[in-house]
Write a structure and sequence with these properties.
single chain, alpha/beta, Rossmann fold, 3 domains, four-stranded parallel β-sheet, 16% strand, binds 1,3-dihydroxyacetonephosphate, binds iron/sulfur cluster
Length: 303
């Protein structure tokens, strides 16, 4: 029996569904029931009938799925797969900003721990940050933890005053605009599609800025046949499936998220067999507040 067949059998036996982020390895995306960006996956987790969700993603994703579905079993193939940005908020700095502005809304990127979410008013993902922030009644916004997504949101919602702290995704922050421009010089007809977690210099050279699913749908609908991609290189798998006729170029220093790549077929099999690495969250005030922060995001998108 192949590993893929073993996973199929275990899924049926355990009434399990597999969700995978676009940044996971191709063999993981191949066996997933649903592949998506952070928003799609968090929403999907709330509407699936299965008893068990195997979340092929980093820890904040499994934690968010469990917060939104406390009665479900959420299993993480690799318990150590983490997102460094999800921890990058200094609570004392946040408290200081709260004291300065009476009407402040703290908007928290879903790439954050439950504790950070509990300090916040509403969660967002890169797919909905602009529209959610635009529709908030508050004039003053503190956007955590991603300073790049915060700056990009501020540019698109100029009527708000958006403050941010010093958080970032190391993979997107370290992408070099020079490498993107070098690719453009080699492929002048290629469109440059980048993620808003990228640094300002990279955003400045882009033809399109959007979440992972935004980048995919741009490529899918475009009549262009060459694209330079400024996001984690795991998305190559879905891009090639969506546009087998097109060529996708990634920066020479390949953007690779170590946490996402830790997930392998063997650990998917292991957690399905043993129930290991279950996300367990206490029913306490921190987790209840974090759940409300996520629920407000889903409600805001549905409005
Ligand atoms: P999206 O899934 O919202 O595109 O965010 C990218 C990311 O870094 C996920 O960790
Ligand atoms: Fe976190 Fe960046 Fe990896 Fe996304 S790509 S999970 S933001 S480290």
């Amino acid at each position: 029996m192949t590993k893929q067949e073993e996973i199929q059998n275990l899924k049926q036996e355990k009434n399990a569904v597999i969700l995978a982020h676009y940044y996971t390895r191709p063999e993981i995306q191949e066996i997933a029931d649903y592949i998506g960006d952070s928003y799609f996956l968090s929403k999907k987790a709330t509407i699936l009938p299965h008893r068990t969700i195997v979340f092929c993603g980093v820890s904040f994703m499994g934690e968010s799925a469990k917060l939104l579905n406390p009665s479900k079993i959420v299993l993480m193939p690799d318990a150590e797969a983490d997102c460094p940005m999800a921890h990058m908020v200094d609570q004392s700095a946040l408290k200081k900003v709260r004291q300065q502005y009476e009407d402040l809304a703290v908007v928290c990127y879903i790439n954050s721990t439950a504790e950070i979410k509990s300090w916040s008013d509403i969660s967002v993902t890169s797919a909905n940050a602009i529209s959610i922030v635009r529709n908030l009644p508050n004039k003053n916004i503190l956007f955590i933890p991603d300073k790049n997504l915060a700056r990009y949101t501020a540019e698109n919602v100029p009527e708000k005053s958006i403050l941010f702290l010093e958080g970032f995704c190391p993979i997107h922050e370290n992408m070099r605009a020079e490498e993107i421009q070098k690719l453009r010089a080699q492929h002048p007809a290629a469109k440059i599609l980048v993620h808003p977690e990228c640094n300002y210099a990279v955003l400045n050279v882009a033809d399109y800025i959007g979440s992972t699913s935004g980048i995919l749908s741009y490529a899918e609908k475009s009549s262009d046949i060459e694209f330079i991609i400024g996001t984690e290189s795991g998305v190559r798998y879905a891009l090639q499936q969506a546009r087998p006729d097109a060529t996708f170029y990634f920066p020479e220093t390949e953007p690779v998220c170590a946490g996402m790549k830790q997930i392998a077929l063997d650990n998917v099999i292991e957690v399905l067999k043993t129930g290991k690495n279950e996300v367990l969250l206490e029913d306490n005030s921190i987790n209840r507040a974090a759940r409300r922060t996520l629920e407000r995001m889903l409600e805001a998108v549905e409005k």
